[in-house]
Structure formats: C-alpha cells, structure tokens
C-alpha cells in the first residue's frame, strides 16, 4: 500500500514532462492495485503455464478449428499492427519519410538485404514471403510481451506450421529449380570419396531435422521466457510487501525477453534465407 | 474429435494441474491454431505483397531518382559555374590585352607627335638662328663701316690738329685699311 501511494506521488512530476511516462505509470499503478485485489490465499499458487491456454473468446464451449479463440484475437492484433506500420505508416509516400515510414523502410531494407546477401539475388521473388514470416513472428513475439496477452508464437503448433511451410517451400523450390541436381546437396563432392556416403547420411538427417529445430527454437525460447516471467510475477504476488526482488527480476527478464523476441524473429528469418540458398544453389 | 476437443478444452479451463500436460501439447487446440495461423499468414502475405511492398519500393525508387536527379542537376550547375568562371577569366584576359594594346598605341601616337613637335621646333629654332646670324653679320658689317667712317674722320681731325696738311681722302682710306687689316 505504501508503495502504491509513493507510486501515485511520482506520477505528478512525470505528468508535467512526458505524457507517455504518465500513462505508463498509471497503467503500472492500475496493474499493481489489480494485483493486490487478486487473491493469493493458497500460498504459492503459481500457474506459469496458464497463460498459454487456448480458450474461446465467447463462452466456454469446445475449441473447434473455426472457433474464434484468443489465438484468433492476438493474430488479428498482429495483422493490425503490421498493417498499421507497413500500410498506414507509409501512407504519406513521402520522399522525406515520417517516423513510421522510416521504420517501415528500415524493416523493408533490412529483410531485403538479408535475403539478397544470404540467399542471393535470385531469391528476391521470395522476399515478400520471407518478410511476411519476419513481420508475423516479430509482431507476435512483441505483442506477447504485453501483460495479460497471449503469445501465439509460443505454441509449437504455430511454429511447426511456419517451419514446415519453409521446409516444403525449400524442398519444392530445390527440386523445381535444380531437378535431381538438388540431391547434390547431400553428396559432398569436396570430401574424400570414402567419406561421402557417411556424410550423405548425416546431411540427410540434418536436412530433415531442420524444421524441427527451426520450430522448437522459436516456440521454446518464447515459452520459457514467458513462463519465467510468470513465475517471478507469482513470487512477487506471494511475497506481498517484500516483493521488491522478484519485481526487479521481472523487469530484468522483461528486458531480456524484448531482446529474445527480436532475435528469435531474426534467427527464424535468416535460417529461412539460408535454407533458400541451399534450394537455389545446392552445391557447396 | 469435437468431443475430445471439448473435454480437453474443459480440462484446460480447469487448470493445468488437473490435466498435467502443458497447453502447447494439447493437440485438441492444434486445428484451431493452425487454421487461424494459415488465415493470418495469408492476410499478412497479401497485405505486404499487394499493398505495402510495392508502395515502399516505389517510394525508395522515387527517392533514389530524386537523389540522382539532384546530383545530376548539381553537377550541371557546377559545370555551368565553371564555364562562367572560364568566360569571366577569358573576358578579363581579353580586356587586359585590349588595354595593353590601347596603351601601346597611345604611347606610339604620343611619341610620334612628340617627335613631330620636336622636329618642328628644331626647324623653327634653326631658322631663327640663321636669321639671327644674318642680322648679326649685317650688324657687324654695319659696325665695321661705321668704324671706318669714324676712323677716317678722327684721323683727319688728328692730322689737322697736329698741324699737318689736310690729308686727302685717298691716302687716308688706304692708311686706315692698312691699319684695320693688321
């Protein structure tokens, strides 16, 4: 309670300077009060995995494939964010860009350069696909960091489909562009002849393990981070007034999670580019 | 299928402690997630490839065009400035050369005039000198004649004053001419 009063005192000077800081502090104060009102009578009643439950938006009915769920809502918000940045942000079409347009151009240039540098110029037809993956994962990750939100990319079902789509694309493109020469990917001509069959087996296994690692890396990172955040938050709730240390931990891990969100989106995208390079230029 | 979905959905609602698994491995929710994911990805892909990317590409191309146009214009202006500077220098050199010409010409004219005037003045001086010499000679001749007359008179007077006979004019003249020679 005392800290709540102190919090509201801090609001006053901040409100004169920066309205955004005031809004953030107000949200923090509201969340703090909500946390105090929440009952933690059962001691350590921490459910770090509850945040990942897929539930219908309306009512408690079964989750059919078409049911609008929290997955639907957060994916829709993700789409809205992407539209806001990439379409509304660039609405001015200015030669000297606005802030939003600068960010959109930055993302465009960043991913385009990545595709061009990693996968080569002939991979540029896949640029919209790669950018769509990058934007979707990035915004899903970042939206998942909003308190009480739902992180769609923390689910293996989602990341597995993303990775499988990349895997299928790469395999199909590889065979369409190179025919059977695509199999040269597994036949390492630079190695001694005796080693080649062994290498071929290893290459084949690594090729099929790619989508697994590709998907689990993303989902695992996000799930672990969010679960840890929730555990620390649970400690904070359970410890009451002595919650300073866990709150500090939550803040620190939150910062780390912002980094992880961006890096994982980047890693997923650059791996997609690497696989595309293999499909377009299968020779080592 | 729908039944299991319902059950595990309920289990999930009831809390994970009851079902024991993690929500990520609740396969009953997979069709739902996959369906919405495919829909979302399709929307994102369409929005990006149909609207956002052409627009950003056009903006970037416009900017590139504007920049290269500006650079070309700047280069053109620079060339023009250089040409103007050259023309200015040329004009300056021309003017200087012309000025030199004019100076040389004027100097020549002045020298010619001066020589002319000098020659004229010399001629005038020479003429005057000759004239003066003639007059001097004349005056001298006049003076000599006068002196003869005075000497004749004075000699006649002297001779008569000394008691001699009045000398006749012929002897007198010869004697004076004799003396004046010596």
Describe the structure in your own words.
- The complex is a heterodimer of chains A (about 280) and B (about 180).
- With about 280 residues, chain A is mainly α.
- Chain A has helices at about 1-15, 20-35, 70-90, 100-120, 125-145, 155-180, 195-240, 245-280.
- In chain A, helix 3 (about 70-90) packs across helix 5 (about 125-145) and helix 7 packs antiparallel against helix 8 (about 245-280).
- Chain A starts with a helix and ends with a helix.
- By secondary structure, chain B is mainly α.
- Chain B has one domain (about 1-180).
- Chain B contains four helices and no strands.
- Chain B has helices at about 1-15, 15-20, 30-160, 170-180.
- Chain B starts with a helix and ends with a helix.
- Chains A and B meet through helix 3, helix 4, helix 5 and helix 6 of A and helix 1 and helix 3 of B.
How are the secondary structure elements laid out?
The complex is a heterodimer of chains A (284) and B (182).
Chain A: H1 2-17, H2 19-37, H3 70-88, H4 99-119, H5 127-143, H6 156-178, H7 196-239, H8 244-280
Helix pairs in contact in A: 1-2, 3-5, 4-5, 4-8, 5-8, 6-7, 6-8, 7-8
Chain B: H1 2-14, H2 16-19, H3 30-161, H4 169-181
Helix pairs in contact in B: 3-4
